[in-house]
């Protein structure tokens, strides 16, 4: 579910931005994606274009504009800054792809990612939006999510409430072939200074290398990386 500020025009503008962030959209597609009336969607998109938050292709489709990157470059994200120190070391230890995910409503977003220099890998780009219903990262984020979110997402998930209980008990999660065939992963929760789970750090790669129970091999290293991130927060 999207958060609402109570300021109607702002919430609608954010709905437009988020829709276009997923893929370029023309006016008809934008209306279909957001549920906004045609005149409202057009007015908001044109206004965002004036402020360079959106830009238009030659075929008239809107896509994210340069002002978004400019604003992001000036943002001070302590979690991402911490990841810059911790994730490369975890990649060196495991030899596999490493990601950091945040939950955003009913999806998880990759906010940091590092890849091994060679070999077959599980590439997840920064900004990628993945489901909260499959994969070890989803299990970790959902295990410590609020009960309303759990009730909404678990019925459609490839795992159960019992699985989430086990994740909370042992402090990490694993998966094999859930999110994508042939890919295994193991994840651990990252906590902020107040002890709240704010992210999941993950290692992923081919099942042939990681095995169907990757936690037996990498859980301790994931927990150490999660603790290192926690200390930097």
UniProtKB/TrEMBL annotation:
Keywords assigned: DNA-binding, Transcription, Transcription regulation
Keyword Disulfide bond: no
GO biological process terms held by the UniProt record: negative regulation of DNA-templated transcription
SMART domains, alphabetized: HTH_ICLR (SM00346)
Database matches in Pfam families: HTH_IclR, IclR_C
A GO term, aspect molecular function: DNA binding
Domain called IclR-ED: residue spans: 67-233
Superkingdom assignment: Bacteria
Domain HTH iclR-type: 7-66
InterPro entries per UniProt: GAF-like_dom_sf (IPR029016), HTH_MetabolicPath_Reg (IPR050707), Tscrpt_reg_IclR_C (IPR014757), Tscrpt_reg_IclR_N (IPR005471), WH-like_DNA-bd_sf (IPR036388), WH_DNA-bd_sf (IPR036390)
Stated name of the protein: IclR family transcriptional regulator
């Amino acid at each position: 579910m999207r958060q609402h500020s109570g300021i109607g025009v702002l919430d609608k503008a954010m709905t437009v931005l988020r829709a276009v962030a997923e893929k370029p959209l023309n006016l008809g597609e934008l209306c279909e994606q957001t549920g906004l009336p045609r005149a409202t969607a057009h007015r908001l998109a044109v206004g965002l274009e004036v402020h360079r938050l959106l830009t238009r292709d030659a075929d008239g489709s809107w896509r994210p504009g340069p002002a978004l990157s400019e604003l992001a470059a000036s943002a001070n994200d302590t979690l991402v800054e911490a990841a810059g120190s911790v994730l490369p070391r975890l990649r060196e230890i495991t030899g596999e792809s490493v990601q950091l995910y945040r939950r955003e409503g009913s999806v998880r977003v990759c906010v940091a990612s590092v890849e091994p220099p060679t070999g077959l890998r599980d590439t997840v780009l920064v900004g990628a939006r993945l489901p909260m219903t499959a994969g070890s990262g989803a299990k970790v984020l959902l295990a410590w999510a609020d009960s309303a979110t759990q009730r909404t997402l678990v019925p459609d998930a490839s795992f159960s409430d019992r699985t989430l209980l086990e994740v909370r008990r042992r402090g990490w999660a694993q998966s094999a072939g859930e999110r994508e065939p042939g890919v295994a992963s193991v994840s651990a929760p990252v906590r902020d200074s107040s002890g709240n789970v704010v992210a999941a750090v993950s290692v992923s790669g081919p099942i042939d290398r990681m095995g169907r129970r990757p936690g037996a091999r990498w859980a301790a290293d994931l927990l150490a990386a999660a603790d290192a991130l926690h200390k930097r927060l």
